[in-house]
Amino acid sequence: MSFHTPSDLKLICGNRNYSSWSLRAWLTLRKAGIDPELIVLPMDTPEFEERVAQYSPTRRVPVLWIGDEYVWDSLAIAETVNERYADFALWPVDLKLRALGRAMAAEMHSGFAALRQEMPMNCRARQRRLAVSDGVHRDVHRISELWQAAQQQSGSSTWLLGDFSIADAMFAPVAVRFGAYALDLSVPTKAYVDHWLADADLQAWMSLANKEAWVIEHEEVGE
Ligand SMILES: N[C@@H](CCC(=O)N[C@@H](CS)C(=O)NCC(=O)O)C(=O)O
């Protein structure tokens, strides 16, 4: 795929290795054929505190700047990218699939607290061992169930809803986590994880994450 880099567009994000919300926003742009100019702020540092205020009303990342307009929050960014740069192709045409995708994206955006807290995304980690709490166990089970239900409904064995959609972008950091920690995953769950891990855009992000020197100690969980 060839990408273009609109001169009026900038994505402000966190360290590629750890910033799962930044990854979601970046993937939606890449899948719309855009390789955005990136401003990467090192999270958990005084520099982040100082610089993020320049760009983000919430002091969080990601934020997408389009000229002098800015959109914060990964899901709002994804919807904006869909409308302005992807000709609405990042949601399925089918109304039922679209509603399912939106519900899944919303559930990911507001839920799975145990998984998000206890299993931070870490692009550099592989098969780390972790004591899996009941909460994480429930989240992993629910996510596997959701992925399978979506693929059953869409008849897809690759992306969740047929073609790539915002729902896939929302779950990409979960696929990275499922590769980073040693978990007992079902065959279809593992297949979806492997599909994501073989994706060229995700691999491009992960290879840059590998080259980052920053380490956030409290995000380095598992052995
Ligand atoms: N709901 C927001 C969450 C954004 C968020 O929590 N971002 C993290 C990085 S992944 C952040 O900015 N952390 C820095 C901080 O809280 O100081 C979204 O979807 O974009």
CATH topology name of the largest domain: Glutathione S-transferase Yfyf (Class Pi), Chain A, domain 2
- Anisotropy-based shape: globular
Q: Give the % helix.
A: 40-55%
The rounded distance between the terminal residues' Cα atoms is 37 Å
Q: Could you report the average pLDDT, rounded to the nearest whole number?
A: 97
Broad CATH class of the largest domain: Mainly Alpha
**Ranges with pLDDT <50 over ≥5 residues?**
none
Kindly report the spatial arrangement of strands forming the biggest sheet: 2-1-3-4
Tell me the major beta sheet.
4 strands, mixed
Strand residue content: 5-15%
Helical stretch count?
Answer: 9
The count of strands amounts to 4
Structural class: alpha+beta
- Please tell me the total number of domains: 2
Order of helices and strands: EHEHEEHHHHHHH
Bound molecules: glutathione
Please identify, by name, the CATH architecture of the largest domain.
Answer: Up-down Bundle
Please give the radius of gyration in angstroms. 17 Å
Protein name: Glutathione S-transferase family protein
Domain GST N-terminal: 9-89
Organism: Congregibacter variabilis
